[in-house]
Amino acid sequence: MLSKIKQQFEVCNYERVVKLADKYLNNHREEIDKTAVIEYKIVSLVNLGRDEEALRNIDLIINDSDNYDLKYWRAIAYANLGRFDTALKDARAICLLEASNIEYMELLIDILMVTGHDQEMIEECNKLLNIYPENPYALTYRSYGFIKLEEYQLALDDMSKYISSDHALLDSDTANNIGFCYDKLNENNLAKKYYEIAIHQNHRHPYALNNLGYLICKEGDIKKGLSMIKRSIKYDSQNSFAYKNLGKAHLLTNDKNSAFKYLMLAKELEYGLDFDTEVDFLLDKHFPGNTD
Hints:
Elements: H1 2-10, H2 14-27, H3 34-47, H4 51-61, H5 68-80, H6 84-97, H7 102-114, H8 118-131, H9 136-148, H10 152-164, H11 172-184, H12 188-201, H13 206-218, H14 222-235, H15 240-252, H16 256-269, H17 278-286
Helix pairs in contact: 1-2, 1-3, 2-3, 3-4, 3-5, 4-5, 5-6, 6-7, 7-8, 7-9, 8-9, 9-10, 10-11, 11-12, 11-13, 12-13, 13-14, 13-15, 14-15, 15-16, 16-17
């Protein structure tokens, strides 16, 4: 039976793996192959999005403290369920014990990114790059960390390394991030070039449309810029950054009523503003006492 389960697992037939595993576990009380069968079942359940069920099965055999793979899949299941603090505890533990396992390290980096541990994420990326130089995963995530820490040149350096090995890696998200860094460094022509690359690859890319739209507003074409920002909201109606840029664009024309409306919308949505304090700064500066 174990060979059949393994065969189905290798072809990613996870539903079949779970059925075969349940059949085996219901009909065999002896310990032989039991742990291996449960492990195949657990991984299949996570891949099927049945994370709560996977966790229940992990609890059956997790007493083996040396089973780092089970802790790895438990961390993934917890993360999938949004229980990031618990996921982070497991991810940190297995990386401490298996410091050179690339899958464990990438999982920890991913969870650190989601939970906003930017400095620790950068440090873990550094460790991964020391072991696997030019690792694209580490370069990409480290660049995200540098952007959040406003280290834009360092982020550009990482993204340049990332795409230098294969220009196919210049996807719309990477192009937008490169454009954003050049934008922050006041390299407007390069910023526009990469925003346009991102939009060419994905004409519905909300962040590139928003970023390019505000850059165009700053250069004086308010009508065209506002149109692009509003287009970006069509594709992501919850993006606080777009509403923030609408507010900033209206401040450029001294249309304070519109500016206030859009800045307050950005503040109320909150999405994406976990590390951005500019909305509060603009409201306090231009509309003191009006935001209560």
